[in-house]
Every structure is written in C-alpha cells, then in structure tokens.
Amino acid sequence: MDFSKFGQKFTQPTGISQLMDDLGDALKSDQPINMLGGGNPARIEAVNEVFLQTYQALGNDGLEGTALNSIGNYSNPQGDAAFIDALVDFFNRHYDWNLTADNIALTNGSQNAFFYLFNLFGGAFTDDQNQSVDKSILLPLAPEYIGYSDVHIDGQHFAAILPHIDEVTYNGEEGFFKYRVDFEALERLPALVEGRIGAICCSRPTNPTGNVLTDEEMSRLAEIAKRYGVPLIIDNAYGMPFPNIIYSDAHLNWDDNTILCFSLSKIGLPGVRTGIIVAAPEVIAAVSSMNAVVNLAPTRFGAAIATPLVKDDRIKQLSDEAIKPFYQQQANTAVRLLKEALGDYPLAIHKPEGAIFLWLWFKDLPITTVKLYERLKEKGTLIVPSKYFFPGVDVDNYKHAHECIRMSIAADEQTLIDGIKVIGEVVRELYDDR
Q1: Which backbone phi and psi does 174 adopt, to 5 degrees?
Q2: Which segments within 27-79 are labelled E, that is strand?
Q3: Mean pLDDT across the stretch 372-381?
C-alpha cells in the first residue's frame, strides 16, 4: 500500500516508537521485565489515594455532575473552561503573572502540544521579500527529549548546541558530571544570526539527563530569544510547580515571549493525556485552532480530576511533600546501586537534579549503547540508548552520543536492584573483554 510523504514520515521506525513499543510489549510479557526504559511515572500510594478520592467524588455528583459532564460533552477547542480558570487563579496566586483565560490552552498531552508548537515555529516560512525560508527549532543544550525528534510534518527542523561537560560531585562523591549551555557556540550559530531559527526550546528538568538549567542560563536564553524576536519554549513536564521534581535551587518565570508547557502525566496521570500551554494570546488562539482541526476539542477527564486539586493547592502539596521526595530518594538509591555494581569501571552519572531518570555515561564503551540496549533487552532489562536523544546533532561524528543510556528510576526498589545488577554484569563483561 502506498502512503504519502506525510504517511511515510510517520510510519518509519523512530526512537519514540521503539520506546513505546517496548513499553507495551513489556507490560504484555509473561516473562519478568526490569522496566528501566519507559517514561511512565511511579505509582506513589499517597498520590494515588488522592486521585482515587477525587475520582470517586466526581461520581457522587449524580447524573448532572462533573464526571458525566466531562465525558458526555465537548469543551471548546481551547479546553475545559473550569480547569483553565482554576489554572489562571493558581498561577496568578503563586507567581503573580497577571494571566487571563486567553493565556492558557489545553492539549491531549504535552507530546500533542509540541507537535503543534514545533510546526507553528519550525518549517517553511515566507520572508519579507516573499522568499521561502526554512526555520529550525534551536535546542540550546543537547541531549534533549526523544519525543521531539520526529514531530515535524515535513522534514526535521532542529539546530542543537553540544554541551560543555563539567566534572562535579554529588553528595560529596566523585564520578558525576553536569551539562552546561555553550553560549559562545550558541551565539555564533549561523542559523540564529541569519534569521533561520523560529523558536528556542529546552526542557527543565531535562529529559533524559535530569539536568536543571540554572536561573542564569534561563535568563540568558530568554534575553537571546527576545533579541532575535523568537519565543522561548520551556518544557516543564517535570518542573515547577507540579510535579516539582527539581532538587536544585531554581525559579520559574514567564512573560509574553515565553511559552510554558506543563503536563498532568508526571504527577501520576499519564493516561488522561492532558497538556497545558501558558503563552501569549495569539499563540493560544493558534493552538486552539489546531485543536479544532486535529481533535475537535481536548479530552476533559484529566481536567475534571485536576480542577479541585488546583483550586485548593493540593496539587502543589502533593508535588512538594510526596512526589519530589519520592524521586529524590529513588535517585539516591539508584546511584548507590550503580556505584556498587560498577565500582571502578568507567561509569559517570549526570548529577541528579530532577526528573525521573538517571543518565549514565560509559566512556570508551567497546560497543555502541544501541548494541548495549539489545544485549540488556535479551536479559530482560530495558533502558534507552543515547543515540535517539540528539535531534539536530550529527551523531555519526559525535562519539559521546553513543556512550550513554537513560535509565528510569520510577520502578520499585526490587526492579532497580535487579535491573542495575544486569546492567553491571553486562557492562563489566564488555570492558573486561576489551
């Protein structure tokens, strides 16, 4: 069967399709799988209890109540009005941003949001002389989220800056590193200087590494974006104020040139597919129009569950008191297990500053981490190789892009123990054989 170019683009194998296929296969498998590769959040008892209570309360409203209303009626294309109003009040209450309902739109998950935003600001444009020009999305710090790579309708429109890599300590221990933005390389980037950048985008905390760009780095990126007349898009799926999986000192800012993207997934509701965009009204109007064409309207069920939690600040309380401490403890446990499993072998860990992953660097690994992924998969342990996290980078000529893996820390402790044991055994054998 022949597909269009559009169809061929979206049916070819990709990193994100492989990740989701492996996640689905693992859940269906009758063999035990050490699931350290997916992006699914942990099931935290205290959080799930609040979700269950809220869900049950929705059902107690009767035939005309919130639960049936949320699944029995469309919202408008901008999204559920009650949830948007609650978010406006929440952000103004905590950050004094002076938002109105015109500043917020909902999407069917943040992946849906980035499909919209990257196609709004990256791709074919017409300049002032009516000439066609292709504009890219600038990723100021590679590696970046695997799901960005293939969302453009036509081609791939990314420019990426390779990081400075600094050796750092964590809890007084050696063996850690941190990525930092190379602003000198960014400012020299021809595509930026020549007007071929449509937006700057970063995730904070970064998926896959757990890196948190500093307030100074964010301030400089915001200044550069304004100077060149492009928006700064911030993927806040793991950030403040919910789920607030950030351990470093960081602050959240917004202005009319900033597009903030949030999600309900990492607070523990990935199945409701609810993304949140905070932006200038013209961006919100564009996203709403795209919603109407692609989805008719965003799903409302996640909004129904989250609205009361946003209104009374329980969503922030859960994030601060349950979600953030859980993942910080998970990170510390995983670091200890990795240190025990690999000892003096060439392992460096990106400093855990947030998100739900560890990023491991096996310097001079005798094989690529794509091949390491296959070996670990054969032994019932899933991770994600680093190659897929470098959109906009010529990975064939960047050795570091083949030496790292992303490992989820959202699994239960026994899965961490079992999975890290397998990683240690396979990696030690590779170095020993060399």
Answers
A1: -85, 175
A2: 34-35
A3: 94
The CATH number of the domain holding residue 376 is 3.90.1150.10
- Mean pLDDT on 253-276: 95
199 and 304 in one domain?
Answer: yes
**CA–CA distance, 220 with 214 (Å, rounded to integer):** 10
Domain count, the chain: 2
Name the nearest CA neighbour of 334 among 373, 270, 383.
383
Residue 416, beta-bridge partner list: none
**AA identity, residue 218:** M
What is the H or E stretch that residue 203 is in? Answer: strand 197-203
Q: Are residues 85 and 189 in the same domain?
A: yes
Rounded Cα distance between 41 and 270, Å, is 8
Residue pair 152/122 in contact (Cβ under 8 Å)? The answer is yes
**36-73 tens-digit pLDDT:** 988 889 999 999 999 999 988 877 765 455 666 767 77
Average pLDDT over residues 388-394: 94
Contacts of 62-67 with CB under 8 Å at 24 or more apart are 66/304, 67/304
DSSP 8-class letter at 354: B
258 neighbors 231 (Cβ within 8 angstroms): yes
Query: Hey, what are 48's tokens?
Result: 């799930």
Residue 349 domain-assigned (yes or no): yes
CB atoms within 10 A of CB 33: 20
Task: Select from 203, 179, 221, 218 the least CA-distant residue to 352.
Answer: 179
Q: CA nearest 198: which of 223, 232, 227? A: 232
Find out whether 304 and 67 touch, Cβ atoms under 8 Å. yes
User: pLDDT digits over 295-304, tens only?
Assistant: 898 988 899 9
Tokens 């929705």 belong to 58
Contact 40, 264 (CB under 8 A): no
- Identify the domain containing residue 352 by its residue range: 5-44+318-433
Rounded to an integer, what distance in angstroms lies between the CA atom of residue 155 and that of residue 262? 26
Tell me: do 310 and 404 sit in the same domain. Answer: no
Contact residues for 354 (Cβ-Cβ < 8 A; gap 6+): 205, 210, 211, 212, 238, 239, 245, 246, 247, 248
Q: Is 46 helix (H, G, I), strand (E, B) or coil?
A: helix
Residue 61 included in any domain: no
Closest CA to 106 of 246, 296, 233: 296
Using an 8 Å Cβ cutoff, are 407 and 209 in contact?
A: no
